[in-house]
Structures are given as structure tokens and as C-alpha cells.
UniProtKB/TrEMBL annotation:
It comes from the Bacteria. Residues 344-376, 721-749 are annotated as: Disordered. Keywords: Membrane, Signal, Transmembrane, Transmembrane helix. This is Glycoprotein. It comes from Microbispora siamensis.
């Protein structure tokens, strides 16, 4: 049992010992803690100065610390490759990933030293370019390794680069353009409703505060891509009370300060407006929302100019993820875009025979190996359906990753800065190699001026538009780049395709890229809301795009990874649209009509604050009892004006069938362009079969009237045969009245 326990203890110790993989030591998690949390890197390299070595005899200072078991002894050494700089950027990548490139020399700089009681060992030492074997300009590997003094086991390692650019050595220049985005996800659904209070927090001390600080700290060599939808949200936040999901809140003065600070920071700097709300252009085009993509481009430039107080163009697009396909490129070109910023791997160099890396025998003799692949220029031409081609601005993937990466870990910013400088220096040395065949050589002397080459341009841009910058890191990186002898900062708009650029293949847009787009079902919802919003806009006498920007916000590319939030925004927009549509309503109180034909009154009320122009279409929903007396059974009014706050009555001609009964008619409001406005309303019509009864009554009345006339005639005729009275008492003597027979009244006297 004792031997088993000892063996188990030894095995546990071996498993708990750190493994040196790219400078990261992995230890077993303590009891009671989850194993998911990554342990802190035990090796911290906090300083390597100078970042660019300019003098062969100048010392290179390295400092840092190592954390481990208190009292254990460790050694600190440097590893390098004497006299052998990297031949390509591909070798640099292989070196960092331990895939096929290894250092050949090493030297112990700190001998076996025990860690202190806290388990730390700070170290500091110097080396010179001569000691490291740097005979000529180039980028060299440089490793700091910590090993166990007793066993020699690696406990930690950090790989980085040393760039050697001696003074007096002419190194080809590289133009560097940097693009940085000031973009955020939308915070308003409809224009009047904020869906959260996250914007205030971000402006005060979050991501947007860091973006403002970065803009204030950087110089004129950066091109800023600004989303006007963000600026608009900030303006509304600062200008007055707002609704946050139904709760009224006061204006945020800090939002106004942020907006003013950004205006000041971007003064005299190159600014490009993104399309409004930074839309997912590819998804819009693929799902038939081309009009919306074009509208976002137009709205973006005009609103950015208004909010920043100077002319801002939107002729350069930056698609989400740096990827796009031909259909989307054509839409951008037709919408006035002249250049598009993409990831470099979106338009890769075309493969040639020299790119295979194989030595093909010719006449039985092997040929020399092909030269190392060089970094292509950052601009290329894209043919489109428009009259003029588009300029593809291609950001270097590696530089972009370094620029937009997370440097929050101790020492990460310094190492990222050194890699950025080394990568750009390697691009410069690639140009020199093309002319001389070896770094640092011009002609036969290795000194003097190099032959003239076309100045290459590279672009660096964060991979994500929603990046969170470290202002100090970005500022220091750009300052280091500005002072590097091989770099010259330039604006993005100055980058143009060269005459002898590297041939490139077609745009790459994979199935993975399509899967990353906004989903088909979600965009179907957006399309439905867009049609309803168009109806709201066109029904008023003066067309007003009340929900235009709300629909554009729903197409933001920021919803790609936030579908649940996107649906909640869409639901709020639909609620707002439906509420405005309901302000124009059909009164659905029951109506009555008597007889075989007649008119049914239909009333429409306009409760909007504007006059409307509308049509009314009426059809029968009960044709067996009631039909519309119009061609095809459809009654449509001409375009009718209804004043604000008023109602309009329309009489619809109908025909009652089969002695009537309860029926219904369907009333649909239409815009002047015959688009449906709201849903159809059913109105109950009580059609009574009173026509037959009315005829009976009228017939009986006629018979009675005729009978009365006949009776009167008969009465008159009967009176003709009745004898008249004699002369009156005054004309005849009394003796003559009796027995006298009167003369006929028709006879003359």
C-alpha cells in the first residue's frame, strides 16, 4: 500500500507539472474548483527593449518574472538562431505555432535560482545583437524559456521576434493604412423606444468610452468608420426624455459630452460613414432586400454629415466579417460604392506554378526552388455590373488579428506590438529579397541603397466591427509603427491598385460565410415589416417615412450572433407599426339594408395627426345572401382624402339574394399605390327580404283605392235616377208644392 501511495503521489506530481506550450504552463486544478478556468501564465515577459534593434552593439534588455512552487529552483535561458533570420512570414507563423521551425541555439542567462516565499522569481538580463548572431537586417526568432533546475523540464516559454534594422541600411518602405470602426449594435427599436439602458453604461465607462479615448489618442494616419445609427442613438439619448420599454427616463448629459468629444476627436481626420446601422449587406441581397441595402448606404452618408457637422462620404463599404460575394458587390457598386474593405483571404492570390513549392525536373536537371511567397499589395480591382470597377481594399489577416486582439493579459500588449513590427518589417524585407536575393544586400556590398521597387501597401483593421480596444495599446502600437524606419502611415482612401499587382483569384464566400448571415426566417419578418412600414409612409398626404430607420436597424449585422435580441426588437417595431395603422380604422358596427338592392354605408375614421389619401375596397363575404353591385363583385372607391381627426362615409351598392338574412362584407383599406393598409375588416349587414311584402301591401292598397273609386261612381249614378224636390216655398205658391213633378236637371229652364 505504501508503494502504491508513493507511486500515486509521483504520478500526481508529474501530471501537475506545467507543460511548456507556447509559453503557457498548465497545472492541475486545485481541489474543489472547476477545471474549465484556464490557469494564469506562469511566465511573464514584461519588457524587451528596444523593440527595434538599430545598433549592433546596443544592449537588448529583457525583464519579467516566473511564478511557481516556493523554494523550487529554476533557470531562465534565451533561445535563438544564430545568423539565420526568417525567410518568410510563413516561417514566422510556423515558429509561433511550433510547426516545423525551431531555434538552433540557446544560452542560459539566469542560473539555477530558487523562487522566493511567494513563489516568484523576477529576472532581468541583457544581450546584444552580436551575441545573438544577427549579422544582417532581418527578423529573428527570440525565445525566453524557464526550466526546472533539477530535472531540466520546461516550465514555461514565450516566443517573440527581434527586428534588426541597422542605421544606414536602406530598407524598402511599406505604406501602412489603418482602419478602425466606431460601431455598436442598435439600442432603439422604433425611433421612440430604447430597448435597454446599455448605451449609457457603455458611453460612461465601457466599450464606447474606450473607443472615444482611442480616437482622441491616435493621430491623423487612421481612417475611422463611423456608424451613423450609433451617433443618432447617442443624440436621442442626450436630447430629452426617452422611453425604455415603456418607462420614461430623463436625458443623459454624458451622452452629449461623448458625442461632442467624438466630433472634436475626429476633426481633420479621415472619416467614412458605414451604411446606416452597419447592415448585413450580403444577407439582404441574398434574400431580396436589395432596396433596403441601397437605402442604408444613402441614409448613412447623409446622417453622418449632419451629426458630425462636415461632409462625410459613404463610398467605401466594410462588410461584416470582411467577406462578400459577387451579388453583394454588384449591389454595392450600383448604390454608389467605389471601394470595399475586405479581409485579405477574401480575395486570395491566384495560384501559379511557382507557388507549389515543388522542384520540377527539366531535361533531367532539377530547377532551383521557387522564391518564398511574398505579401501581395493591399488593393485590387473588382469588375462589377456597374460601369466602373470597384477597388478591393484587402486587410492583412495577421496584422488585423494583432491590432484587434485581446491584450488584457500582463505582457500581452508588448508582445503584440513586437509581432506587429516584425510582420511589417518582414514585408519590407520581402521586397528587398525580390531585388537582391538576400536580406541586406544591394549589389555585392550589402550596404548602400537598394534598387527601386514599387512601394507595397498593407492595411490593418480589426476583424470585428464590435471590437473593444485598449486605448493605450492602440496608441503605442501606432506610435511605434510611425517611428519604424520601414513604415509610412497613409490614409485608406490613398490606397489604389498598382499596375503590376499580384494576380488574384475570385472572391471566396464559403458555405460557412453564408451560415453566418442573418437567417432567412428572420429576414422574412423584416420584409413583412418593411411592407407595412411602406404602407404607413405612403398613406399620408405628405409621405412620411415614420419607420424607415427602424427597419434599417433590424438589418444590422450585429444581430448575427444575437438572434434572440433581434426578435425582441422586431416585435417592438411591429407593435409600433400596428399601433399607427390602427389609427386609421373602419367602423365595424352592424349595418342594415332593405329590398333587393340598396346601399350599405361604410365609415372610415382618421385619428392620425396628418391628412391621408386612401382607397376603400369592399367585397362580399356572404355572396349567397349579399353581392356587391359592381364589376366583378368588387367595389373600389377613388383615392379619397380624409382630414386629420375626421371620418369619411362611403355608400356601397349591394344586391340582396334569396330574401336576405345576416351577411357580411369585407372592407380593405388601400394606399394610393393599391398596397394593403392594415387587415381587412368584416362588417355585418342585416339584409331583410322586405320587397315581396311591400308589393303585396302596395297591391292591396291599389285594389282598395280602385274599389273606392268604383263605389263613388256607382253612388253618383244611383243619384241620377232619384227624383228632385219641387220649387222652393218662396217661388211656388203653397198649393202647387204637392203633386208637382220637377223638370230634369239636364234640361234648359
Amino acid at each position: 500500500m505504501i508503494r502504491k501511495a508513493a507511486l500515486l503521489t509521483l504520478l500526481t506530481a508529474l501530471l501537475a507539472s506545467p507543460a511548456g506550450m507556447a509559453g503557457t504552463a498548465v497545472a492541475a486544478p486545485p481541489p474543489g474548483r472547476a477545471a474549465a478556468a484556464a490557469p494564469a501564465d506562469p511566465l511573464l515577459v514584461s519588457e524587451i527593449t528596444p523593440e527595434v534593434v538599430r545598433v549592433a552593439t546596443a544592449p537588448i534588455t529583457v525583464s519579467g518574472s516566473f511564478s511557481g512552487t516556493p523554494g523550487s529552483s529554476v533557470r531562465v535561458a534565451v533561445r535563438y538562431s544564430r545568423g539565420r533570420p526568417f525567410a518568410s512570414r510563413a516561417e514566422m507563423a510556423a515558429y509561433l505555432s511550433e510547426q516545423g521551425y525551431a531555434t538552433t541555439n540557446w544560452s542560459t542567462r539566469v542560473q539555477a535560482t530558487p523562487l522566493d516565499q511567494s513563489g516568484k522569481l523576477p529576472f532581468r538580463f541583457t544581450v546584444t545583437p552580436g551575441e545573438l548572431g544577427m549579422p544582417r537586417p532581418g527578423v529573428y526568432p527570440f525565445e525566453i524559456e524557464v526550466t526546472d533546475a533539477a530535472t531540466g523540464q520546461r516550465l514555461g516559454i514565450e516566443r517573440t521576434f527581434l527586428t534588426y534594422a541597422p542605421k544606414g541600411e536602406q530598407i524598402p518602405k511599406v505604406k501602412l493604412a489603418v482602419a478602425l470602426p466606431i460601431v455598436d449594435r442598435p439600442h432603439r427599436a422604433d425611433d421612440a423606444t430604447f430597448m435597454d439602458d446599455d448605451l449609457s453604461a457603455s458611453l460612461a465607462s465601457g466599450r464606447l468610452a474606450s473607443l472615444l479615448q482611442t480616437a482622441q489618442d491616435t493621430g491623423d494616419g487612421v481612417t475611422w468608420f463611423v456608424d451613423p445609427a450609433l451617433l443618432d442613438d447617442v443624440r436621442v439619448l442626450s436630447s430629452g426624455t426617452r422611453s425604455v420599454r415603456g418607462t420614461r427616463k430623463n436625458a443623459d448629459p454624458a451622452a452629449g459630452q461623448w458625442l461632442n468629444g467624438l466630433r472634436s476627436a475626429l476633426t481633420d481626420k479621415t472619416v467614412v460613414a458605414t451604411p446606416y446601422a452597419d447592415p448585413d449587406v450580403a444577407a439582404l441581397v441574398h434574400h431580396g432586400l436589395d432596396k433596403q441595402a441601397a437605402a442604408s448606404i444613402q441614409r448613412g452618408a447623409s446622417l453622418a454629415s449632419e451629426l458630425l457637422g462636415r461632409q462625410i462620404h459613404g463610398t467605401t463599404a466594410w462588410p461584416a466579417g470582411g467577406k462578400i460575394d459577387r451579388d453583394a458587390v454588384d449591389e454595392l457598386a450600383m448604390s454608389g460604392v467605389t471601394s470595399v474593405l475586405l479581409s485579405g483571404d477574401a480575395l486570395p492570390p491566384r495560384a501559379t506554378g511557382q507557388d507549389t513549392g515543388q522542384d520540377v525536373p527539366q531535361n533531367g536537371q532539377p530547377v532551383a526552388p521557387p522564391p518564398a511567397q511574398t505579401t501581395p499589395d493591399a488593393a485590387a480591382r473588382l469588375d462589377t455590373v456597374a460601369d466602373n470597377p470597384l477597388t478591393a481594399l484587402l486587410a492583412d489577416p495577421t496584422l488585423s488579428e494583432v491590432l484587434g486582439g485581446n491584450v488584457s493579459a500582463p505582457g500581452a500588449a508588448m508582445l503584440a506590438r513586437q509581432r506587429f513590427l516584425a510582420e511589417t518589417a518582414m514585408i519590407a524585407f520581402e521586397q528587398q529579397t525580390q531585388q537582391t536575393g538576400q536580406f541586406g544586400q544591394t549589389g555585392q556590398t550589402g550596404q548602400g541603397t537598394t534598387a527601386k521597387t514599387a512601394t507595397r501597401t498593407v492595411i490593418a483593421a480589426p476583424e470585428s466591427h464590435l471590437w473593444t480596444p485598449d486605448p493605450a495599446f492602440v496608441s503605442s502600437l501606432l506610435q511605434a509603427a510611425s517611428s519604424a524606419p520601414w513604415l509610412r502611415m497613409t490614409s485608406l482612401e490613398s490606397v489604389k491598385p498598382g499596375r503590376a499587382g499580384v494576380p488574384r483569384g475570385d472572391l471566396t464566400y464559403t458555405e460557412h460565410d453564408r451560415q453566418a448571415e442573418l437567417s432567412r426566417s428572420y429576414l422574412a419578418t423584416v420584409r413583412k415589416l418593411e411592407r407595412k412600414a411602406d404602407a404607413v409612409a405612403t398613406v399620408t398626404e405628405e409621405h412620411t417615412d415614420v419607420f424607415h430607420t427602424a427597419i434599417l436597424r433590424l438589418a444590422s449585422a450585429s444581430w448575427r450572433d444575437d438572434g434572440k435580441r433581434a426578435l425582441s426588437f422586431a416585435g417592438q417595431v411591429q407593435k409600433a407599426i400596428d399601433g399607427r395603422i390602427d389609427d386609421v380604422s373602419v367602423l365595424d358596427t352592424p349595418r342594415a339594408v332593405a329590398g333587393s338592392n340598396g346601399q350599405v354605408p361604410v365609415s372610415v375614421a382618421n385619428n392620425l395627426d396628418k391628412d391621408i389619401q386612401i382607397k376603400i375596397r369592399v367585397t362580399s363575404a356572404s355572396k349567397s345572401r349579399l353581392t356587391i353591385d359592381a364589376p366583378g363583385g368588387v367595389y373600389v372607391t377613388p383615392t379619397t382624402r380624409i382630414l386629420s381627426g375626421r371620418s369619411q362615409l362611403v355608400n356601397v351598392p349591394v344586391i340582396v339574394r334569396n330574401e336576405g338574412g345576416d351577411a357580411s362584407i369585407s372592407v380593405q383599406l388601400l394606399t394610393d399605390g393599391d398596397e394593403k393598409y392594415g387587415s381587412a375588416v368584416r362588417v355585418v349587414v342585416r339584409a331583410t327580404g322586405y320587397t315581396g311584402i311591400a308589393l303585396v301591401i302596395v297591391g292591396a292598397a291599389v285594389v282598395i283605392m280602385l274599389a273606392a273609386v268604383v263605389m263613388r261612381i256607382l253612388r253618383r249614378r244611383s243619384r241620377k235616377a232619384f227624383p228632385f224636390d219641387g220649387p222652393n216655398d218662396e217661388e211656388s205658391p203653397p198649393g202647387d208644392r204637392q203633386g208637382a213633378v220637377p223638370a230634369d236637371r239636364t234640361q234648359s229652364p
